[in-house]
Amino acid sequence: MEKHIEAYLVKRVKALGGIAYKWRGHGGAADRIIVLPDGTVWFVEVKTIGGRLSALQKVFAADMARLKQKYTVLWTKEEIEKWLTTITK
């Protein structure tokens, strides 16, 4: 379930000393704003295998790319681990 993957993301970010804020109130916005101790900020959408981005989520992703923001979609706990390894080097 998506909520389990999202909870795992929150737990892992917290273990690194970061915060995974839940962002509400803006249609299409990423599920979480990840703030890491080194000052890096990521916008993270969480999906499960078989899930897909809505039209508004695609617009948000495009906006983040245009604004040169760090954005990713994570689909599994394994992807979360791989992503965390690459961003905390």
Distance between the termini: 29 Å
Give the topology string: H per helix, E per strand. HEEEHEH
Strand content: 15-25%
Outline type: globular
Low-confidence stretches: none
Main sheet?
4 strands, mixed
| Integer average pLDDT | 95
**How large is the radius of gyration?**
12 Å
Estimated structural class: alpha+beta
Strand tally is 4
Helix content class = 40-55%
Tally of contiguous helical segments: 3
Strand order of the largest sheet: 1-2-3-4
Secondary-structure blueprint:
Elements: H1 2-15, E1 19-22, E2 32-35, E3 41-46, H2 55-66, E4 70-74, H3 77-87
Parallel strand pairs: 3-4
Antiparallel strand pairs: 1-2, 2-3
Helix pairs in contact: 1-3
3D structure, described in words:
The protein has 89 residues and is of the alpha+beta class. It is 42% helix and 21% strand. A four-stranded mixed beta sheet has the order 1-2-3-4, with helices on both faces. The longest helix is centred in the first third of the chain and has 14 residues. The radius of gyration is 12 Å and the shape is globular. The model has no long low-confidence stretch (mean pLDDT 95).
Task: Write a brief caption for the model.
This protein has 89 residues and is α+β, with helices and mostly antiparallel strands. It is built from three helices and four strands.
Tags for this entry?
single chain; 89 residues; alpha+beta; four-stranded mixed β-sheet; 21% strand; globular
